[in-house]
Structure formats: C-alpha cells, structure tokens
From TrEMBL:
Protein name (Swiss-Prot/TrEMBL): Co-chaperone DjlA N-terminal domain-containing protein
Highest taxon in the source lineage: Bacteria
Species of the source: Rhizobium terricola
Family matches, as SUPFAM superfamilies: TerB-like
Pfam assignment, any one: TerB
Residue ranges of every copy of the Co-chaperone DjlA N-terminal domain listed in the record: 28-145
Amino acid sequence: MLEQLQAFFQSLTQNRDQRPSFAPDDIRIAVAGLCLQVMDADGVIHAAEREKLRSILREQYQLDEPSLNALLEEGARAESEAVDYYRFTSDLKRALNDEQRQQLIGILWDIVYADGTRSEMEDHAIWRVAELLGVSGRDRVHARQGAKSRSGLTGNDDA
C-alpha cells in the first residue's frame, strides 16, 4: 500500500516536470491572451495567423515546443475568461516600458497581416489596445506600416 502511494506521488511529480507551467501572473500569458483576442476580432482565426503567433512567441521568449504549447493553452484559458482587453492591457501597461508596448502593437499588426488582409474589426481592436496601453496614434500607425511592409503586402490601406 505504501509503495502504491509513493508511486502515485512520484507520477504526479513526473507529469508536472514533463509539462511546462507558467505562474498565473506571468506576463507572457497576458501577451498570448491579448494576441488571441485580437486574432479573433474579425470572427475568423486563420491558420496563417495561428502560425504567426506561434512563431512570434517561440522567437520572443525562446520557447521549445512543449513550453510554447503550454503558453498558448494558458493564454487561451485566460482569453476565454477575459471580459475585455483591459484584463490584459492593465497588467501589460504596468510590466512593459514604452518601447515594449510599441513593439507589442507591432506584433499584433504582424499577426493581423499574416492572413494577407486587415479587417475593420482588427483595426478597431488594435486601436483600442493601443489606447489602453498608452501607445500614441502616431506610433500605432508606424507599427501598422512596419508590419504591412514586413508582410510584403502592397496597396494603400493606411488611412
């Protein structure tokens, strides 16, 4: 009986070690959750947007595949519980400096342009997030133009 109990506790420890976890207040969860909210702003999450998000998170945070999957799972859980953008932006505004907040807006635009289009709903979502983060309209537009340029899209949608 004692051996079974020890085996049970060891299995709990082993499973925990194999599955990466993030503290509930880990700012990376807020970033992932916010990105997921913006991705869903137009009602359609494209495979290209998902892959762009995975690529960005992997690169920004130097995550291996299990850690990336765990972060996305935690971000999705937080996003499903969030009522609005403020849930994430309030934490992010405190944790990030001005340059990092501007970079985050650029990342959101990169995700929006990943599917080759920009919808009015996505535009509005990023406008709202930028306002909540304290990123100026000018910096938001510069971030959008940079993301559009990186995406290789042409055309004049910079109004």
